[in-house]
C-alpha cells in the first residue's frame, strides 16, 4: 500500500498552528493570573491601610491561592488573622509554613515566632512556652525570652522568671535588678504563708541588698520583723526605706506611726515624717503626722498646714470631722457627703494603663507592669 504524502503535507502545518494557538492561550492565561495576583495583593494592602481587616483577609486569600509559594503573603495573612482574633486560622497558616520543606531557616524561625505569638494571644500558655523554647539560638531569642518572662510572671512561677531575667541581663537586654528583687519578695510571701520565716527573711535580705532603692523589700522586711515581735527591728527597716527609697515613704507612713507608738520613739519618727512633708505634702504622711500629734487640736493643725500648702478634698474632709457646724443637724449628712466624694480620690492609679484600685500594687493586675503605681493617691497626681 502506497503512503499518501498528502495527509502529511496537510498535517504538519495544522499541528504547528494548533501548537502556536495553545502556546498563545497559555501565555494569555499566565498574563491574566500574573496581573490578578498583584492586584489582589495591592487591594489587600489598601484595605489594611484603611483598617478594613475582613476585606484585606479576603484579598490576601485570593493572592495566596494565585501564588501559594509566596511566604510573605502567608505571613501577612497569619498576622491579620491574629489581629482579628481568629487564632485557629492564624495557627494553621503558620503551621503550614513550618511544614513546607522549601522554606529557608530565616523564614522558618519567623514562622515559629509567629506561631508562638498566636498561642500567647490565644491564652494557650503551655503551647506558647513550648514554641518559644524552639527559638533558642535564633534571631528571635531575645523576643522569645521576654515573652517567656511574661508567661512565667502571669503563672506566678517566680523561679523560672528569675532564671529568664538573669539570662536577659547577661545578654545585655536591659537591667532586671529591680524585677529580680520583686521576684524574691514574691517568693518570701509564699515562704511566709508556708511558715518558713527563715527562708522569707533570707530572701528579703537579698532583695534589699541587691535593690535598696525598691521600697517593697524594706516594707516586707519590716512587716516580717513586726510579725516576729521585733518592733525595733521593724522600725529600723522603715528608717532604711526613708534613706534608700524616700519616694516610697508615703506607703510606709502609717506603719511608721504605729511602730513609733509601740516603741515609744514618736519624736524620732515625727522628725523623719516632718522632713518628708517639707519635701512635698502627702496625704498619707499628713495622716501619720496627725496620728502622732499629742492632741486633737494639734492633729487638726497638721491638716490645716497641708491645706495651706496644697488644696485637698480628702484632707479638708478630715479637718471638717473635728469642726462643729452651726447647725448640728447638718454635721452628719455634710460629713457623709464629703467622705463619699473624696473616697475615689484616695485610690491609686497605674501610670501605664490607668487601672485604679483602693490598694497599692507593685505588679499592675491590668497591664502586668511593674512599679507603675505611684506612691501617691489619685488626688495628688
UniProtKB/TrEMBL annotation:
Residues 348-372 form the LapB rubredoxin metal binding domain. The keyword Iron applies. GO terms for biological process: lipopolysaccharide metabolic process; regulation of lipid biosynthetic process. Fe cation binds at residues 350, 353, 364, 367. The chain crosses the membrane at residues 6-25. One of its GO terms (molecular function) is iron ion binding. Keywords: Cell inner membrane, Cell membrane, Iron, Membrane, Metal-binding, Repeat, TPR repeat, Transmembrane, Transmembrane helix. Residues 24-381 are cytoplasmic. SUPFAM superfamilies: TPR-like. GO terms for cellular component: cytoplasmic side of plasma membrane. It is a single-pass membrane protein. Pfam families: TPR_7, Zn_ribbon_LapB. InterPro entries: CellSynth/LPSAsmb/PSIAsmb (IPR051012), LapB (IPR030865), Rubredoxin_2 (IPR041166), TPR-like_helical_dom_sf (IPR011990), TPR_rpt (IPR019734). The keyword Membrane applies. It is found in: Cell inner membrane. Modulates cellular lipopolysaccharide (LPS) levels by regulating LpxC, which is involved in lipid A biosynthesis. May act by modulating the proteolytic activity of FtsH towards LpxC. May also coordinate assembly of proteins involved in LPS synthesis at the plasma membrane. Belongs to the LapB family. This is Lipopolysaccharide assembly protein B.
Amino acid at each position: 500500500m502506497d503512503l499518501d504524502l498528502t495527509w502529511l503535507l496537510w498535517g504538519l502545518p495544522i499541528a504547528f498552528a494548533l501548537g502556536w494557538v495553545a502556546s498563545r492561550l497559555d501565555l494569555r492565561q499566565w498574563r491574566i493570573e500574573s496581573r490578578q495576583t498583584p492586584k489582589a495583593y495591592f487591594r489587600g494592602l489598601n484595605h489594611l491601610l484603611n483598617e478594613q481587616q475582613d476585606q484585606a483577609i479576603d484579598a490576601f486569600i485570593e493572592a495566596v491561592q494565585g501564588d501559594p509559594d509566596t511566604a510573605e503573603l502567608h505571613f501577612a495573612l497569619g498576622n491579620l488573622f491574629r489581629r482579628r482574633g481568629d487564632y485557629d486560622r492564624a495557627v494553621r497558616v503558620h503551621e503550614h509554613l513550618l511544614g513546607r520543606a522549601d522554606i529557608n531557616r530565616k523564614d522558618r524561625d519567623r514562622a515559629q515566632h509567629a506561631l508562638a505569638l498566636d498561642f500567647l494571644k490565644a491564652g494557650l500558655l503551655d503551647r506558647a512556652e513550648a514554641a518559644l523554647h524552639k527559638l533558642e539560638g535564633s534571631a528571635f531569642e531575645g523576643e522569645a525570652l521576654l515573652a517567656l518572662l511574661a508567661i512565667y510572671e502571669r503563672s506566678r512561677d517566680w523561679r523560672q522568671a528569675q532564671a529568664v531575667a538573669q539570662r536577659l541581663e547577661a545578654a545585655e537586654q536591659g537591667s532586671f535588678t529591680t524585677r529580680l528583687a520583686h521576684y524574691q519578695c514574691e517568693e518570701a510571701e509564699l515562704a511566709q504563708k508556708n511558715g518558713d520565716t527563715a527562708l522569707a527573711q533570707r530572701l528579703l535580705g537579698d532583695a534589699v541588698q541587691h535593690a535598696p532603692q525598691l521600697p517593697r523589700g524594706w516594707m516586707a522586711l519590716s512587716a516580717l520583723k513586726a510579725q516576729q515581735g521585733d518592733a525595733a527591728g521593724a522600725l529600723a527597716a522603715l528608717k532604711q526605706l526613708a534613706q534608700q527609697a524616700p519616694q516610697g515613704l508615703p506607703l510606709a507612713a502609717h506603719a511608721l506611726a504605729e511602730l513609733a507608738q509601740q516603741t515609744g520613739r514618736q519624736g524620732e519618727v515625727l522628725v523623719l515624717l516632718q522632713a518628708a512633708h517639707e519635701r512635698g505634702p502627702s496625704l498619707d504622711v499628713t495622716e501619720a503626722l496627725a496620728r502622732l500629734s499629742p492632741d486633737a487640736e494639734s492633729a487638726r493643725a497638721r491638716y490645716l498646714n497641708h491645706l495651706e500648702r496644697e488644696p485637698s478634698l480628702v484632707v479638708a474632709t478630715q479637718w471638717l470631722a473635728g469642726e462643729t457646724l452651726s447647725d448640728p443637724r447638718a454635721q452628719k449628712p455634710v460629713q457623709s457627703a464629703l467622705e463619699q466624694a473624696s473616697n475615689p480620690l484616695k485610690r491609686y492609679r497605674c501610670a501605664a494603663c490607668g487601672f485604679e484600685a483602693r490598694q497599692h500594687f507593685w505588679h499592675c493586675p491590668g497591664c502586668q507592669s511593674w512599679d507603675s503605681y505611684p506612691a501617691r493617691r489619685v488626688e495628688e497626681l
